[in-house]
Amino acid sequence: MSAQHIHDLAPLGAIIRYADGTARPPAHHSRKVALWENTNNVGRLIRKRPGGHRGIEGFPATFTLHKGDFGQGGIILVRVHRTFDLCSRLTFTIVERPRIGTVRVLSGPYDDRELIHLADDLTAAEQWRELNGYRHAVLEPVTADEHAADVVEGRAVA
Prior knowledge:
The protein is an alpha+beta fold.
């Protein structure tokens, strides 16, 4: 899939794989492997931003993947995100969609919202929201209707 397809069709919370089409270098070439992993990896789709204009300058639509967290003792010190614009030459694949019944905890009700957490159910989402200080976050359940629309509209193809 292209970056445009991911932006248009993939739901927030989906696991996305991206690749540049090159073969993985041998493990003993650690620098080459690290460079290769920069353009061949996976992440959870947490944000979609529409393109637009500021003054006479235009900017492309983008989407952001959460690649991981680093820390210790249950404390996250660094969150790693990767943002792609729709001109990316990488190939994208939807590896996994959020399960029916899970609940997205979103930063707000607007188009520019971000997935903060993906909870197993509504009770877990409400508890997470209160414990983590996101009292104004929006809870959005993943429904069977959403999955059915993906299949009917051809979005279920990975």
